[in-house]
Amino acid sequence: MQRTFLKAKLHRVTTTASELDYEGSCEIDGILLDAAGISAFEQIQIYNIANGNRFTTYAIRGKENTGVISVNGAAAHKAAVGDLLIIASYASYDEHEVKNYSPNLCYVDNNNVLTRKSSSIS
């Protein structure tokens, strides 16, 4: 049996751009993608803390050390510059994999600079 668990989370990142006239997706600073273990074109869930919107899109790799979090295309209607977001990815694990499971939880400062990583909520 496969079970779905949180694989990675970028907690309380700040939206730096909201580009309606773009093909789609969410551009994320490459440092943050690497820290979370999220790949380019991987499906992500975005939870907007500011307005409660929840939506699905995919990640694209942004330039490293820029702090970019750009919500693009139709999703731009769901996030404005300055909104706080939680970006999450999930994966399916079998019973054997669950025994060694731990998520990548990434926390940032007000400039979307990684401040710490954890595998448990503190």
UniProtKB/TrEMBL annotation:
Keyword Cytoplasm assigned: yes
Membrane-crossing segments per the record: none
Gene Ontology CC: one annotated term: cytosol
Keywords of the record: Autocatalytic cleavage, Cytoplasm, Decarboxylase, Lyase, Pantothenate biosynthesis, Pyruvate, Schiff base, Zymogen
Any one GO MF annotation of this record: aspartate 1-decarboxylase activity
EC id: 4.1.1.11
CDD domains: Asp_decarbox (cd06919)
InterPro entries reported for this sequence: Asp_de-COase-like_dom_sf, Asp_decarbox
GO biological process: alanine biosynthetic process; pantothenate biosynthetic process
Pfam families found in the cross-reference section: Asp_decarbox (PF02261)
Protein name, as recorded: Aspartate 1-decarboxylase
